[in-house]
Design a protein that fits this description.
The complex is a heterodimer of chains A (125) and B (482). Chain A has five helices and seven strands. Chain A has 125 residues and is an alpha/beta fold. Chain A has a single domain, classed as Rossmann fold (3-Layer(aba) Sandwich), CATH 3.40.50. In chain A, the strands form two sheets. Chain A has a five-stranded parallel sheet with strand order 2-1-3-6-7, sandwiched between helices. In chain A, strands 4-5 form a two-stranded antiparallel sheet. In chain A, strand 6, helix 4 and strand 7 form a beta-alpha-beta unit. Chain B folds into four domains: 144 residues; 96 residues, PAS domain (Beta-Lactamase, 2-Layer Sandwich); 51 residues; 146 residues, Histidine kinase-like ATPase, C-terminal domain (Heat Shock Protein 90, 2-Layer Sandwich). In chain B, 55% of the residues lie in helices and 17% in strands. Classes of the chains: A alpha/beta (125), B alpha+beta (482).
């Protein structure tokens, strides 16, 4: 399953270490370069230094709201081009996620296939 | 607490201090003393003021009968008899001291004797009547006091009004609850501003028993949730004479329930995150170990995955229960072919249910307006239950039919069955069949409750036909789409 063709960079923003590690493991095995941050405020720094191709952003991050971060990213012309995939345990959160400008929505629980499918769609595109 | 007796009763109680003192000697002493005092005053009048001993005859005849009657009434038989004896002795004294011939004397003695007898009978009758009334009043007063004591000790608010809505009795609990003073005679229908007292007004108007859950705000501004039972009290002729209302403050209970639901909701959400990552790691592990082609690894991984799946199902059920209880369950209806859905669910389940043959015995193309995911959930629940409760590996039969304007889906098994008295209960929240045989079946008893609520949200019905020992048929009906 290891694929050498992709070396796209993915930033994972999720305060749940378990999920964020699992996501990066799956993505790394697939050949992506992954950075994670558990703190929402660090997102902007990380984007500047890491320059990700896709951002995976959790809706519920302690201390802040993933949708606010997304909104801010979409307002900034430096970051507005980066596709944002939002993750939430609430299947009903999809609409509010679309409203904040995110490109895609991934509902928890998801499996690796779904994750890779959606990430590759935006990383390649 | 206000408990009022009729004016007549209070008047009778006033004339009867002896009954309250409970001193039988006192009643004899008092009547004797008073009667003697009257005699002495008559004698004083005769000897000192009128200076004629003969003058005593007439007043003595007129004064003593009323005295005897009074004492009979006041102190009962004992008082009346004491007064009679004293009176007859006095008559004897008058007769003996008077300047009269022996013939006259004997006539007067006869008269005195007859009079004494009449007085005695009178005293006896009046005294007996009085004592009977006394006992009756005592009993009533006792009953009232007992009732008062009970009502005062009750942990719930109690209010009783007469048929026109005036308060006859109210306990402290109710006054504390609503934070007001309700005076005796307070007119409920005119002054009522508390919704906690609305059922009372309703019963006053209709005479019917009312059980209601009310939200009310007390005088302190605190909002309360109260459970109210109100019923009319009828007299022998069936006329409403009073209305009683029992008001139970369940605010704390409600708050606890809300906190419990919040907790379940939070806990199941918290459980979801580690579950999600566990499943992801498992998939990674599966991919990584694929190359070894080791059967033991595959079996172990499959077992872990199955157990994780089970855990996921429990968490999902918990979430559903919490959603249902807080009214947050969302049903997304679409037009769908129920027969196709049944085929799909059966096909998927047959993969995991290996020991039972799931057969569709009757089916026809039918369209409904329903939530696909939720209806599959109900069907899955019914079929997995059927498998779970038929340990012998007997077949499971599915039937999909049109019944009037409904589509009926039936799941029949030939398993252990359910006793009749449990047919309703099994659909209750967190109810699990608990008899010696079923104890060996694990589960939290959430499935059927969730199924029932989902079917209810589809304006349908769910039920069971079963006999202990020979299997069950679970069915649900939802309206056909037209």
């Amino acid at each position: 399953m290891l694929s050498s063709a992709v070396s796209k960079k993915i930033l994972v923003v999720d305060d749940d270490e378990g999920i964020s590690n699992a996501i990066s493991l799956i993505l790394e095995l697939e050949g992506y370069v992954v950075e994670t941050t558990l703190k929402g405020d660090e997102t902007y720094h990380k984007i500047e230094s890491f320059k990700p191709d896709v951002i995976l952003l959790d809706v519920l991050i302690s201390g802040t709201d993933g949708r606010r971060i997304c909104h801010r990213l979409k307002q900034d012309r430096h970051t507005s081009q980066i596709p944002v995939i939002m993750i939430s345990a609430h299947p009903t959160a999809e609409q509010s996620v679309r409203d904040c400008g995110a490109e895609a929505f991934l509902a928890k629980p998801f499996n690796s296939e779904e994750l890779l499918g959606i990430v590759s769609k935006y990383a390649e595109g | 607490m206000h408990f009022e007796y009729s004016r007549m009763r209070r008047l009778l109680a006033y004339f009867n201090p002896i009954a309250r003192l409970g001193n039988k000697h006192y009643s004899i002493l008092l009547s004797t003393t008073i009667t003697l005092l009257f005699m002495i005053s008559i004698e004083i009048y005769a000897h000192i003021i009128a200076k004629d001993p003969e003058v005593v005859g007439l007043p003595a005849l007129f004064i003593f009968p009323p005295l005897i009657i009074y004492f009979s009434f006041r102190d009962g038989i004992r008082g009346g008899i004491a007064a009679t004896i004293v009176t007859v002795i006095y008559y004897g004294y008058i007769i003996n001291t008077g300047n009269i011939t022996p013939a006259e004397k004997s006539t007067q003695w006869e008269t005195a004797f007859i009079l004494g007898l009449i007085y005695l009978i009178l005293a006896y009758i009046i005294g007996w009547l009085k004592q009977t009334i006394d006992i009756h009043i005592e009993q009533e007063t006792d009953l009232g006091r007992r009732l008062q004591a009970i009502v005062e000790q009750l942990p719930v608010g109690v209010i009783i009004t007469n048929s026109s809505g005036q308060v006859m009795l109210v306990n402290k609990q109710l006054e504390d609850m609503l934070h007001i003073q309700i005076p005796y005679g307070y007119h409920i229908l005119r002054n009522n501003t508390f919704s906690a007292l609305q059922p009372l007004a309703k019963t006053l108007k209709t005479g019917k028993t009312v059980t209601d859950l009310e939200k009310t705000v007390n005088r302190e501004g605190k909002s309360l949730t109260v459970k109210v039972h109100t019923s009319a009290i009828h007299n022998k002729e069936g006329k409403v004479i009073a209305v009683a209302s029992i008001i139970h403050d369940i605010t704390q209970q409600k708050e606890l329930e809300i906190r419990k639901d919040d907790f379940i909701n939070m806990a199941s959400h918290e459980l979801r995150s580690p579950l999600t990552s566990m499943k992801l790691y498992l998939e990674v592990l599966e991919n990584l170990t694929e190359q070894y082609h080791d059967k033991r690894v595959t079996t172990t991984l499959t077992s872990i995955k199955d157990q994780t799946e089970r855990l996921q199902d429990i968490v999902n059920d918990l979430l559903d229960v919490s959603r249902l209880h807080t009214g947050k369950m969302i049903i997304e209806k679409e037009i769908l072919r129920i027969d196709q859905l049944v085929f799909q669910v059966v096909e998927e389940l047959q993969v995991t249910i290996q020991h039972h043959a799931i057969t569709i015995v009757r089916i026809q193309p039918l369209t409904v307006l329903a939530d696909k995911v939720r209806i599959s959930q109900v069907l899955t629940n019914l079929i997995t239950n059927a498998a779970k409760y038929s340990p012998g590996g007997t077949p499971i039969e599915i039937a999909v039919e049109k019944k009037d304007v409904y589509v009926s889906v039936q799941v029949t098994d030939y398993g252990i069955g359910i006793a009749k008295d449990q047919h309703k209960k099994i659909f209750d929240r967190l109810y699990q069949v608990t008899d010696s045989q079923e104890k060996t079946f694990p589960g939290l008893g959430m499935g059927l409750y969730i199924s029932k609520e989902i079917i209810k949200l589809h304006k349908g019905t769910i039920g069971v036909r079963s006999t202990k020992g020979s299997g069950s048929t679970f069915y649900f009906r939802i309206p056909l789409f037209s």
